């Protein structure tokens, strides 16, 4: 009589386990990254944690290093900045190598090369990994080419006019700022806007929604007044 009871229990267990499995992909915690695959989720989560200052030391190091490099590029040429960076790195590694060699000679130890652990690291790029990176890049390149073609060949007149207005505004921006200055401003925005948005999300979403509705109404009025460019409704 014990065997039938065990048999009747097993379907319920399997059904409960099978019912719990589908909720796993979409039932992540609020702080977890979206299910984008192992590789894409890892990279996107790293960028997300970086710009949202999850690790203050890591983000501060990246932000400070890139900002100093951009400020250096604003004051000096690219060749000078790259040369000074390489000289600084070589000064550190050569000094440490000589220091460890002197210490080993004085202590008569045989610790070996101080950078041996890093020299033994395999940094070769396999053909499979190379093809994966190329295929991922080709997806973005093809998407960008398709977007460029539809904008410049005026598939949608409103979208092409938006690009024209944006480029016209960028001529005024370019007259005031150069490329390095824009990169510095972009970095400041990247490392400040996300954390501010996370803190004041409700208020920002409210005002963004109002601006979006007004912009949408203006675009609809323009489309209604210009003949032949109104977007077709989905059948």
From TrEMBL:
Membrane topology according to the record: Multi-pass membrane protein
Keyword field contains Endoplasmic reticulum: yes
Organism, scientific name: Callorhinus ursinus
Keywords of this entry: Endoplasmic reticulum, Membrane, Transmembrane, Transmembrane helix
Protein name, per record: Reticulon
Chain residue ranges for the region called Disordered: 1-31
Source superkingdom: Eukaryota
Coiled-coil residue windows: none
Gene3D superfamilies named in the record: 1.20.5.2480
Top-level taxonomy: Eukaryota, Metazoa, Chordata, Craniata, Vertebrata
First-listed, main subcellular location of the protein, grouped into a coarse class: endoplasmic reticulum
Compositionally biased tracts (Low complexity): 1-24
Protein localization: Endoplasmic reticulum membrane
């Amino acid at each position: 009589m014990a065997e039938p009871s065990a048999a009747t229990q097993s379907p319920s267990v399997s059904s409960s386990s099978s019912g719990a499995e589908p909720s796993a992909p979409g039932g992540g915690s609020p702080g977890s990254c979206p299910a984008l695959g192992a590789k894409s989720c890892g990279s996107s989560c790293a960028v997300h944690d970086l710009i949202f200052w999850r690790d203050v030391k890591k983000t501060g190091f990246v932000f400070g290093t890139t900002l100093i490099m951009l400020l250096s590029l604003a004051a000096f040429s690219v060749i000078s900045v790259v040369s000074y960076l390489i000289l600084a790195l070589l000064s550190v590694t050569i000094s440490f190598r000589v220091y460890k060699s002197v210490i080993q000679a004085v202590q008569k130890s045989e610790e070996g090369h101080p950078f041996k652990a890093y020299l033994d690291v395999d940094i070769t790029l396999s053909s499979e990994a190379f093809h994966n990176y190329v295929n991922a890049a080709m997806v973005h390149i093809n998407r960008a080419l398709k977007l460029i073609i539809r904008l410049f060949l005026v598939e949608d007149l409103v979208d092409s006019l938006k690009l024209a207005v944006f480029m016209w505004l960028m001529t005024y921006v370019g007259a005031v700022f150069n490329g390095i200055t824009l990169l510095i401003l972009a970095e400041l925005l990247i490392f400040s806007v996300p954390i501010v948005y996370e803190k004041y999300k409700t208020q920002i979403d409210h005002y963004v929604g109002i601006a979006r509705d007004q912009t949408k109404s203006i675009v609809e009025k323009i489309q209604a007044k210009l003949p032949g460019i109104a977007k077709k409704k989905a059948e």
